[in-house]
Amino acid sequence: MIKVHHLNCTTFNLRFARLFDGHGKIFDGGLSCVTHCLLVETASAGLVLIDTGFSIQDANNPKRVPPIFHFAFRPPWKSEETVLASIKALGFSPEEVHHILLTHLDIDHASGLVDFPWAKAHVYSEELQSALSGKSIKDRLRYNRIRIKNHEHWEGHDHMVGDTWYGLKKVHPIKELGNDFAFVPLAGHSAGHGGIAIHTDDEWMLHAGDAYMMHTELRPLPDGPSNTGLFQSFIADNQRVYASYYVLFCG
Fold first, then answer.
1. Which residues form the domain of 16?
2. Count of other CB atoms within 10 angstroms of residue 96
3. Are 120 and 156 in contact (CB under 8 A)?
4. I want to staple 181 with a disulfide (CB 3.0 to 4.6 A). Which of 19, 152, 177, 222 is the partner?
5. How confident is the model at residue 232, as a pLDDT?
6. What are 177-200's pLDDT values in tens digits?
7. 160 to each of 105, 183, 213, how far by Cα in Å?
8. How far is residue 147's CA from residue 127's CA, in Å, rounded to a whole number?
9. Whole-model pTM?
10. What is the CATH number of the domain that holds 232?
11. Helix axes 239-250, 228-235, angle to 10 degrees
């Protein structure tokens, strides 16, 4: 049996709202979005966490987070919006989390790893290598290399290995979790970005990470937001590949 809990692991109050929804002035704020994480109850593997958001340490001491995030995203830094607090609020113990599946290692998706030092973290090997190398300025801004390096339990996955699944190629199950979880290559946003497929009852759901950022992007062209691409092209590792998922998800 699989039960999925949807968690808001940080609310962003975007300063440059127009870049996302196409309305208002360029410096307008007020548009909110979240870092969306999942907590999955399983019968055989305990709790499985998908992405972590920021850590409880970040919420209590926001200076740990680079200034660019404060300026552009303006999170409220509420400890109750951390995944650690959410797990406790649901009546679970954090120690029940044995596996963490990461779509990518951007600080707003993976900083919470420090709250689960015992858990095995699964990610595409290419993403882990990119985060640890810190070759470009963009990599040094988006990843917290020290925290990633200090986590002791990693399982790297090969993005070139797997079968075709609902038209997506190179999809492979996570062996330690049976056939209920699978990695789905969705590169572009970062070097080794991936989605996580979850088998619930008789259907599958796909956590797409940052393969798209706003629900309005799922509208068929030309109804989607006109300015979202500017921000995405700035943050993307490969904008050409990233843009191809607009077509994939919109159909």
1. 3-250
2. 14
3. no
4. 177
5. 73
6. 988 999 999 988 899 999 999 999
7. 19, 11, 25
8. 14
9. 0.90
10. 3.60.15.10
11. 130
For 49, 91, 188, 195, 227, the CA distances from 110, given in Å and listed in that order, are 11, 23, 18, 14, 27
| Amino acid sitting at position 138 | K
Nearest residue to 247 via CA among 214, 194, 204, 211: 211
Domain total in the chain: 1
Query: Please, is 126 exposed, middle or buried when counting C-beta atoms within 10 Å of its C-beta (0-12, 13-18, 19+)?
Result: buried
Residue type at 99 in one-letter notation: H
Report the C-alpha gap between 168 and 159 in whole angstroms.
Answer: 12
Q: Which helix (H) or strand (E) holds 194?
A: strand 194-200
Distance, CA of 63 to chain centre: 22
- Sign of CA pseudo-dihedral 166, 205, 196, 201: negative
**Structure confidence at residue 250 (pLDDT):** 46
User: Using one digit for the tens of pLDDT, what is the confidence trace for 201-236?
Assistant: 889 999 999 988 777 667 665 455 555 666 677 777
d(C-alpha 251, C-alpha 241), whole Å? 16
Q: Residue ranges of the chain with pLDDT lower than 50?
A: 222, 250-251
Residue 45 contacts residue 24 (beta carbons within 8 Å): no
